Amino acid sequence: MDVRMTLGSMVRGGADPCHRYATDGSLWRTSRMPAGPATFRLTQRGLHEVTCEAWGLGAEEVVASLPDMLGGRDDPAGFDPRHPLLRDAYARHPGLRVPRTGRVMEALIPAILEQKITGKQAHSAFRWLLRKYGDAAPGPAPAGMVVMPTSEQWRHIPSWDWHRAGVEPPQSRTVVTCARVANRLEECVGLPMEDAYRRMRSIPGVGLWTAAEVASRALGDADSLSVGDYHTCKIVGYALTGKPLDDDGMVELLESWRPHRYRVVRLLELTPAAHPPRRGPRMTIQDHRRH
């Protein structure tokens, strides 16, 4: 099991205030558990041993959740890489697991912020909001680390601060709506996967893409597929067919890999040779904060 690779999908940009990679190779994270905030430090000792130190009111809950968080329930049985590039990626990344953090809102809110904008914009907005409304990380956390706001805090962020962060009204409304029913959404962890998707998608503004982004992080769904992602269908198409695909083409192509479609996508994301070369300018970043 590889800590950095398994939890890498949680990190929202290089300056994510909930994560820090230390010079000694350890990973610091913060989380808001049912009992309260927690800071924890994960240190890898070979592929089969991880040391965890935790601080704060939620420390015991973090330690108890660690096996799931590091992919303890992930079962790759039946996964057939078969494509040469996938076989190579699978062999190169034996420690990749699909995590199950059990923290739905922690995965849902940044996913909502990432809807229909560039990753750079979303990470900047997430960082701005956490630094203003998040709580200081408990324990000896590296400077600048914070814990995500409570659902109550998300609900009461004023409209002008959403604007200052660069978050558009549809996304801020969706965050606030989700925060109002946070307890019901957190219950998705105990539901059958189909029911969990249905409950998340019952919230206006939470579609298949957003629900899949949550399921691959909080629910341990190795089959989640982020249909509608700007990059995923291009990476999958280029890697497995040599040409770009649209969403329908990607879904059709990956059908034979059920129930491991997210595993396929994650392996390709970690493989530089799977990414198509850039042949044009990056997507233009629209900034309306001065308007």
- CATH topology, which one? Endonuclease III, domain 1
**How many domains comprise the coordinates?**
1
H/E element sequence? HEEEEHHHHEEHHHHHHHHH
**How many strands, what sense, and barrel or not for the largest sheet?**
4 strands, antiparallel
- Biggest sheet, spatial arrangement of strands: 1-2-3-4
Assign a percent range to the helix content.
40-55%
Oligomer: single chain
Count up the helices.
14
Number of strands: 6
Question: By helix and strand content, what is the structural category?
Answer: alpha+beta
Q: Could you report the average pLDDT, rounded to the nearest whole number?
A: 94
Strand content: 5-15%
The CATH superfamily turns out to be Hypothetical protein, domain 2
Low-confidence stretches: none
Describe the structure.
With 291 residues, the protein is of the alpha+beta class. The protein has a single domain, classed as Endonuclease III, domain 1 (Orthogonal Bundle). The protein is 43% helix and 10% strand. It has 14 helices and 6 strands. It has helices spanning 3-7, 59-69, 84-92, 104-113, 119-133, 151-155, 159-165, 169-180, 182-186, 193-201, 208-218, 232-241, 247-254, 261-269, and strands at residues 19-21, 27-33, 36-44, 50-55, 135-136, 146-147. The protein has a 4-stranded antiparallel sheet with strand order 1-2-3-4, with helices on one face. It has a two-stranded antiparallel ribbon with strand order 5-6. Strand 2 (27-33) and strand 3 (36-44) form a beta hairpin. Helix 10 crosses helix 11 (208-218). The protein is globular and about 45 Å long.
